[in-house]
User: Fold this.
Amino acid sequence: MSFGGAPLQNLSGLDEEELQRIYTWVDDIPLTRPKRNITRDFSDGVMMAEVVKHFFPKIVDLHNYSPANSVQQKTYNWQTLNQKIFRRVNFSVTQQDIDDIVTCVPGAVERVLKQFEAKVAKYRAK
Assistant:
């Protein structure tokens, strides 16, 4: 399953081929919620926590991340990921990226997923 229409590529900074590769990469990860719209699906941080847990199962406790609709709770989930989980794998997301993701700015989550995919690839190469 792939995510519907691709977001505007000029907003993510990724070309169509890179976007499709990211969508395929995410499609191959078992997630608890159905994937419908990548921008909204990842906005609360829960699916990102699941992605991290897939590759680094010992460092993520999914019960710490609750599905959210409010920007405040979404931001809290992403900041928790950033401060407690991402730094353990030498990865970080800027506050601007967090703000863009939680407010569903098209292309924001794809940029972060591409960076995280590169981190996973580098980690696996060790």
User: Anything to note?
Assistant: The radius of gyration is 13 Å. Confidence is low (pLDDT under 50) at residues 1-10. Helices lie at 9-12, 16-27, 38-41, 46-55, 71-85, 95-102, 108-125. The longest helix spans residues 108-125.
